[in-house]
Amino acid sequence: MRTKTGKIVSNSQDKTLIIEVTTSKIHPKYKKSYKVSRKFYAHTPENKKFEIGDEITVYETKPISKTKRWTTEKPNVKK
Q1: In the chain, where the domains are located
Q2: Residue 75 pLDDT > 70
Q3: What is the pTM of this model?
Q4: Does domain 3-71 have CATH number 2.40.50.140?
């Protein structure tokens, strides 16, 4: 199960959060580090529980809608 940690940039949609994940990469030729940001849409059953700027971990799940592939609640894992 994949996880990503990022900051909440929007919570205005119903049961949806937009998470921005920032990672550092190193340029192959110039060896300088730079930041790359990417946004992910996450499902949250408890609406308006999170605020903008909060640090949150999202978990990969089956597709919920056209763009939502992540959820904020931890799924039950059978061992």
Answers
A1: 3-71
A2: no
A3: 0.84
A4: yes
